[in-house]
Amino acid sequence: MKKDTIDNLFDNLKGSFDIESPAEGHELRFLAKLKPENGVKSISNKKKYTYLSIAASVLVIFGLGFVFLNANPSLDKQVVKISPEISKTEFYFANVIQLEINKLQNENTPATKKIIDDTMLQLTKLESDYGKLENDLINGGNSKFILSAMITNFQTRIDLLADVLEQIDEIKKIQHEKAII
Q1: What is the number of other CB atoms lying within 10 angstroms of the CB of residue 167?
Q2: Which of 24, 86, 162, 179 is at a distance of 20 to 30 A from 137, taking alpha carbons?
Q3: What is the pLDDT along the chain (181 residues), one digit of tens a residue?
Q4: How far apart are CA 90 and CA 84, in angstroms?
Q5: In angstroms, how far is the first alpha carbon of the chain from the final one?
Q6: What phi-psi label fits residue 148: left (phi over 0), alpha (psi between -120 and 50 degrees) or beta?
Q7: How many whole angstroms separate alpha carbon 100 and alpha carbon 93?
Q8: Angle 84-106/75-82 helices, nearest 10 degrees?
């Protein structure tokens, strides 16, 4: 039967083990280094700190749980709670507006850059106004009036984009006529 590899290891190391006894008084010198006046903390203090850290951890966990469970829902969720149909309307108008913005961006040339930049600035202002309307709705304003204003805001943005696209078409026609002449 073949010898185990661990047995081979010990056979190879035979005679090289340190079998010397430590010098006289070694244990007393070692224990003297462990005394608290040498800067080593006692085990009882470690237990005290362990209990304190467990208590602090439990407090932190409860605090985080309280914060996350009592967090206010987002503005959109609050608006949907007040008027569920607004989310469908908002989704529809947002898609139409995004399609118009894409058309507008495709028309971006040096001749139309100024009008497109101004339009994007106006859209940003209208979006800001829409956010204010959402806040008013949540804060208990006249919901029918505010919902009507929100829809008007979307329609204004769509009308603005349509008007600008028409103006860009006029600019392109004028440039085309100048190129022919």
Answers
A1: 13
A2: 162
A3: 456 677 887 778 777 777 778 788 888 888 888 776 655 555 555 555 677 777 777 777 767 666 666 555 555 566 666 666 777 788 888 899 999 999 989 988 888 889 999 999 999 999 999 889 888 877 876 778 888 888 899 999 999 999 999 999 998 888 888 878 7
A4: 10
A5: 107
A6: alpha
A7: 11
A8: 130
